[in-house]
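User: I'm writing a short methods note and want a consistent example. For 2-oxoacid:acceptor oxidoreductase subunit alpha, I'll paste the sequence; you return only the structure tokens, no commentary, since I'll be parsing the reply automatically.
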Amino acid sequence: MSNKLITIKIGGEAGFGIKVAGATLGKVFLRLGYEIADYTEYPSLIRGGHNTTELTIGPKIYHVVRPINLLVALNQETFDKHLSILSDDAGIIFDPEKTKPTTDKFKLYPVPFGKILKEIAGSDLMKNTVALGATLAVLDGNIEGYLQVLKEIFGKKSDKIVNANIAAANAGYSFVKENLQGEFPYKIEPQEVKDQVYLTGNEAIALGAIAGQCQAYFAYPMTPSTSVLVYLSKHGPKVGMLVRQAEDEISVINQAIGASWAGARSMLGTSGGGFALMSEALGLAGITETPLVIFVSQRSGPATGLPTWSEQGDLRFVLHTAQGEFPRIILAPGDQEECFYMTAEAHNLAQKYQMPVFILSDKNLSEGGKTVTSFDQSKIAIEHGEVLSEEQVKQAKKYLRYQVTESGVSPRTLPGTENGLFTANSDEHNEYGYSEEDGENRIAQVDKRARKLETVAKEIPKPVFYGPNNADLTIVSWGSTKSTILQAMESLKDKSVNFLHYSYMWPLGTAQFEPLKKAKKIMVIENNSTGLFEGIIRENVGRVSEFNFRKYDGRPFWPHEIVKKILNI
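Assistant:
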């Protein structure tokens, strides 16, 4: 069995199923027992543009790696644009009738996609199917697994479509086997099949919402958060979830607040530009202490910025948005596994502490696919917090919705609870919920809400350490950079380097910052230009990082970039 990692890049014009081709190939490799990570790029155009998808497969994978070992060029632009990121022993599959080679440095596989499709009376849109058949032949793989996946994908359509795609795949495979013989150093071999699933970060978020018993999800389409809405609109109603696309982002958050006030475990989804419209209503959730889970998938700003590219630029935005001061919790999952479990946990935290809880992702994680061990729902406990029954309200004799408590959490009732009525408006209020402008009451209520953060900080887990103890250099990062850094750590095993990963971003207490105080030297890695988390460390720990690595071109960090940066220190 080869331990080589293999990276394949497929590129072509939008509309020719580039992303679908990558996902389809991923399913084939999944069934062969491989671990997989993928990455897609596409411009913010309504039509056209250059689209690509990359997959890395191997026995153990955290993130897509470069250089590329096999390039599948569905047009001339793909051939010309990506030569610089190919390995010296890479191969290129292309259509010689459409693409003219500009180099003979690599192993060339001219496969006439168009001619093959004419011979089998196939549509030009099926050239990706021909190309994937050719890809499996170049990698010396078996075609049967791919044919089975095609049957499943097109099975709900006509037999004619299924048979046409099977014919196209077989034709591409046979052409390479019969006409393009030659040794290629990268081959796929069946591995031991694992108990794993292959899914994107957003699919894991959606499944986490279902597992966490979310009862209402609201959103307005906005890249890269939209696929959660799409997934839940298909699967949410099957488990009793209300899924609603509102008319705009202001309606989204107000409807979510209303659903939560009525007792539903409520969640909404958006990206930075959409969240900007929600700031006033977020303050309403803060002062009424209404549980709310807010999914924000970051992209490159400001304004429209790079709407189909990625960045970690919204950490301070979600931390400080809305008028005045009120507590919120921020979670930033680092991979698909954390997306699932932390989304379920976000609902518990919102219910227990009666405040907004953010799930902060980004385009790279939201749309990137990866294999993970099948999720275990038995690990998820459902918590509803301090919701009083009618009997408990009767025993209390006097119900104070905003009672000043040591923990900061006040007892809550749901609509219809006898003697559990209270006022929930946007004004400062007393313990009953009535508007109150007295100074002492104001201080008491602000301090009460703030004490929740002290309570939460005692509960949330410490950041996770990877690598050796007492290393000379500690990499510090958060969110989606986790997978890239773990992949880089595979090449740094003989170096005195470890990695401290943060997924619970706020609040941060003594326990969360203690590892930073003990580190010898730290390097903070994040996808933004100003070091947003690095600044939080400096403010709260008083620790100035010795090194940092920032990237903000819309692209992810690549493992080899991190390795090179560290080796140059």
